[in-house]
Write a structure and sequence with these properties.
Number of strands: 10
Order of helices and strands: HEEEEEEEEEEHH
Radius of gyration: 17 Å
Strand content: 35-45%
Helix content: 10-25%
Strand order of the largest sheet: 5-4-3-6-7-2-1-8-9-10
Length: 168
């Protein structure tokens, strides 16, 4: 059980927040963005659910060795594929080095509805018209940063709870 909590911490450390991305192109429920935060942009991160199939993986992600008991500094590969009860049609996110792609049907907080007319020129975001050029998604939609901070606080609290152990 402690291993599962440790894996959760490592996968959370590899998380790419929508608010940190510069939207290159978007068409309603899908975005292609640039992620330039170093060293977080190194490696790849995939997570998604399509109907009842779920995947969550991290590869070649840098970690801070002071943040874990075992002082790991890199996730070579971690994750898995699962069969789950469906709770959405599509929620997909894939980041490879500086390129981040996302898709969700219906749109979610992790993949808000956006449209671009030209590269890096968002003309529609969160069901409202407005032109924003070369800005991060967090600058275009400030509510993204608030939501992500709330989710981090809840996730951190969940990971710090003592794990149940099965008695045999």
């Amino acid at each position: 059980m402690a291993e599962a909590a440790d894996e959760g911490r490592r996968l959370q450390a590899a998380e790419v927040e929508m608010s940190d991305l510069r939207v290159c192109s978007a068409c309603c429920c899908g975005t292609v963005s640039v992620f330039t935060t170093m060293p977080d942009c190194c490696g790849c991160k995939a997570e998604g659910t399509i109907c009842c199939c779920q995947v969550e993986q991290a590869c070649l992600k840098c970690l801070n060795p002071r943040d874990s008991e075992d002082q790991k500094c890199c996730v070579c590969f971690e994750g898995g594929s699962y069969c789950v009860m469906p709770n959405t049609c599509i929620q997909d996110h894939f980041q490879v080095f500086c390129l981040d792609t996302r898709c969700a049907i219906p749109c979610t907080e992790k993949v808000p509805c956006m449209c671009t007319l030209l590269p890096f020129c968002v003309v529609f975001a969160d069901w409202k018209f407005g032109i924003s050029c070369c800005k991060t998604a967090g600058e275009i939609l400030p509510m993204l940063q608030e939501t992500e901070q709330q989710q981090k606080a809840v996730t951190s609290a969940e990971l710090q709870k003592p794990c149940q152990q099965e008695l045999r």
